[in-house]
Amino acid sequence: MGEPPGYRPSAWVHLLHQLPRADFQLRSVSSGFAPQEHEYQQALLLVVALAGLGLGLSLIFIAVYLIRFCCCRPSEPPGAKSPQPGGGCVTWSCVASLLIGCASIGIGFYGNSETSDGVSQLSSALLHANHTLSAIDYLVFETVERLDEAVRTELTTLEEVFSQRTELVAAARGTRRQAETVAQQLQGLAFWQGVPLSPLQVAEDVSFVEEYRWLAYVLLLLLELLVCLFTLLGLAKQSKWLVIVMTVMSLVVLVLSWGSLGLEAATAVGLSDFCSDPDTYILNLTQEETGLSSDILNYYFLCNQDSSNPFQQRLILSQRALANIHSQLQGLQREAVPQFPSAQKPLLSLEETLNVTEGNFHQLVALLHCRGLHKDYGVALRGLCEDAMEGLLFLLLFSLLSAGALATALCSLPRAWALFPPRNPSASCSGSRLSEPLLPGRLEPAPALRSFPGGRRRPH
Question: What is the C-alpha radius of gyration for the chain, rounded to an integer number of angstroms?
Fold first, then answer.
């Protein structure tokens, strides 16, 4: 099948599309995009389950590490003040992991923005396509109404005026038949009229979902940023309570990161299957939802030399009928007006209606060409399969880095706060430590003057 101009499946789409798929029984599943099939749904859920498995393994590793740290730590003799070996390395590894987490947040913001831009392109293309289809319906409706009004009023008046001339009555009736032919042919051009599938409704639904998706990711990114910053602050201030609170919050963000990783991976895999061959799925879905013929859908979605305009015959008949009406009106102007001056006004009104009809007809010819709607289709595909896919991959990288950084931090934080020196309870307000007194404990008394034997004090 042909591809929209400017759209080519990217290397990432090809790579993800080539990955094997399997259902819950580990049976191979075709990589063709088929979200309605139960096996394909299981294949995507299995991708999410792999992220859940990664979360479970990371939690088990963290738990085993912390249990080993708490239970297998060598006891220190009472009064020992020497720091544990490797304490600085533990602290710096924790700080490094948190800094990597902060860097991943920048990647996440970029990926969230790119995904939102791609979905916005999709919504804009759907809105523009809806405007084109609505314009076609409106032009057809307006033109048919004008022609019907002309048949009911001006042409009926002309037949009454020309009642004494049989050939003029025949010419007026011929113009009536031609106008009715144009109206009948034009009614068949509003192919989207009465179709239950509305591009406007689809665009609104997509924008609604995207708004909440974007907001949820912003909140997740801000939450992780606050956790990283306050954890670094707790390490700098050596505040145990702050580090403990941030450890719990890090565990929550770790779960959210693995959850988002699973959703992103499943979405990226499904989107790659769709983008590798979008025409087949879109054609089948649109035909099922709208009931339109395959000729019309192939013409607008493919827009190649093999697809002929399905409305070409109607357009040709309408154009011929309009040309006949124009010639008949000119003949009536020359022959009937000198004999029947009262026919001047309805003939001028018919001429005006004919001019408006021809203008609307030319606009319909331009709108019914496949270029406009096919361009909207290409913009939608590029937004979804290029920008949105790129954004998803960056979000996937963010979730992976975030999960790794938080898992490392959760292993390092308990060892880091165990190295914090104790606080002086009596000086908790001032923040001074027992091991680092700012002033001497007491002032030493000055030594007394010594008296020498035989010495006397000289009077002043």
Answer: 40
